[in-house]
Amino acid sequence: MGRISHRVLKRYPSVLDYPGLPQNAAESLSFALRYAMRQAPGSLRELARAAGVPHSTLVRIRSGKQLATEPVVEAVMGALRAWGGGCWGSYRHLKGELRRFREAKHESGRS
Fold it and tell me: Domain span at residue 26?
């Protein structure tokens, strides 16, 4: 799947609202993380190092072989926040998706 423009993200603030995308909250969170990884100014290896997560984990999430988990998303958010500058948009988008993910998980009764 190609890049999603900032215009599309403004129109569909949650990827759950974006037509044609998976409606599962975990898949939505993974999609948002893949978007943030593509937008990051450094390489995937640099992002993994800054986030303190294994590079192989980010590779599996990027390829769709693994869904993102809350700890991984939080770690990547921390790295994006530390990098600052052009990463704020991706950081805020991930933060919103993580909130929606937690709300969906809470509504389904899973903790």
Answer: 6-107
CA–CA distance, 110 with 27 (Å, rounded to integer): 16
The number of folded domains in the chain is 1
pTM for this entry: 0.76
**How many other CB atoms are found less than 10 A from the CB of residue 78?**
14
Look at residue 102 and tell me whether its pLDDT is greater than 60. yes
CB 26 within 8 A of CB 68: yes
Considering the domain boundaries, does residue 17 fall inside one? yes
Q: Which two tokens stand for residue 98?
A: 């993580």
User: Please, is 23 exposed, middle or buried when counting C-beta atoms within 10 Å of its C-beta (0-12, 13-18, 19+)?
Assistant: exposed
Long-range contacts of 64-70 (CB under 8 A, 24+ apart): 64/30, 66/30, 67/26, 67/27, 67/29, 67/30, 68/26, 68/29, 68/30, 68/33, 70/98, 70/101, 70/102
Cβ-Cβ contacts under 8 Å for 56 (sequence gap 6 or more): none
